[in-house]
Amino acid sequence: TFCFLLQLSLAFAAVLLLASPGPSEGATPVCCTNPAYVQAWTPWFDRDNPSGTGDWETHSDLQNENPGKICDIPRDIEAATLSGLSVGQAGEAILINDKTTGFVCRNLDQSNDKECSDYKVRFSCAPATCEEVCWTNWYNRDRPSGTGDWETLIDLQKQYPGQICAEPLYIEAVTVVGETPAILTGDNILFYSPTKGFVCRNQDQKSGYCKDYKVRFGCHCSSLSQIAANMVKN
C-alpha cells in the first residue's frame, strides 16, 4: 500500500530525525489514521459587514454561500475582527458565538450607539481524509509553571529546525500525563490551530493552572520527505 511504501522510504530519514536533538518522546512520522481529536480549521469567512443591523456570520448562511467548504457539525468556532482582534480583545457585546449557530454581533447591543466591528469566522472540522498526510514527532517545549503552556508553531520550528513542515495541515494536542485530548480536559484553550500551534494560559483557568501538553503536526508526506532529503544532503 501507499502507506507501507512511504514508511519504507522514510525509514532512513526517520533515523536521522530521531538522532538529532528533539523531544524525548519522539516517534517516527507515519501515515495517519485520523486520530479522534485532530484539530483542523476551515479558511476564514466574512459574508457580512456591520453596516446594517450588525455582523451576521451564521453557520447556515455560510454553508449555503460556500457549499462543501464547511462541515455540518463543527467541533469549534473562532471569530476575530478583520484587524486581527479576538472577540475578548474587541470587548463588544456578542449575541451568539457558538459552533452550531455561528456568530452574531448586533449594533443595537453596543454602547454609545457604536456599530459592531467587522468580524470573520472559521470552523474546526474533523479531517475528511488523511490521504498522504504524515505526522511529526510529539513536541513539548514548555511547561505551565509560568504563564501557561505555549506550544506555538513558530517557537517549535525555531527550537527543532527542519523537523516540522512550513504549513501544517493538522494539529493534535494531548496531555503529557495520560495523553488526554486537549478538548476533553476542560481547560480553556487560547488557540489550537495547525498554522499557529497551541496555547493554554493559566489566567484563563478556574484552577489557576493549565495541564502540561504536547503537540504534533500533520503535514503533507512529500514535505516531510523533502525535509529528510535536505538533512541527507547536509
Largest sheet: 3 strands, antiparallel
What structural class results from the helix and strand content? alpha+beta
Average pLDDT number: 80
Compute the number of structural domains. Answer: 2
How would you write the strand order of the largest sheet?
A: 1-6-3
Rounded Rg: 20 Å
Domain WxxW: 41-125, 135-219
GO cellular component, one term: extracellular region
Pfam family, one: Mucin2_WxxW
Subcellular location: Secreted
Q: Can you give a write-up of this model?
A:
One of its GO terms (cellular component) is extracellular region. It is found in: Secreted. Keywords: Glycoprotein, Secreted, Signal. The structure is a single chain. The protein is an alpha+beta fold. The chain has two domains: 142 residues, no CATH class; 85 residues, no CATH class. Helix content is 21%, strand content 25%. It has five helices and twelve strands. Strands 1-6-3 form a three-stranded antiparallel β-sheet, with no helix packed on it. The two termini are 30 Å apart. The N terminus is likely disordered.
Keywords:
21% helix, alpha+beta, disordered N terminus, secreted, globular, three-stranded antiparallel beta sheet
Helices and strands in order:
Blueprint: H1 2-19, E1 40-41, E2 54-58, H2 59-65, E3 76-81, H3 87-90, E4 96-98, E5 102-106, E6 119-125, E7 133-135, E8 148-152, H4 153-159, E9 170-175, E10 191-193, E11 197-201, E12 213-220, H5 221-233
Antiparallel strand pairs: 1-6, 2-5, 3-6, 4-5, 7-12, 8-11, 9-12, 10-11
Helix pairs in contact: 1-5
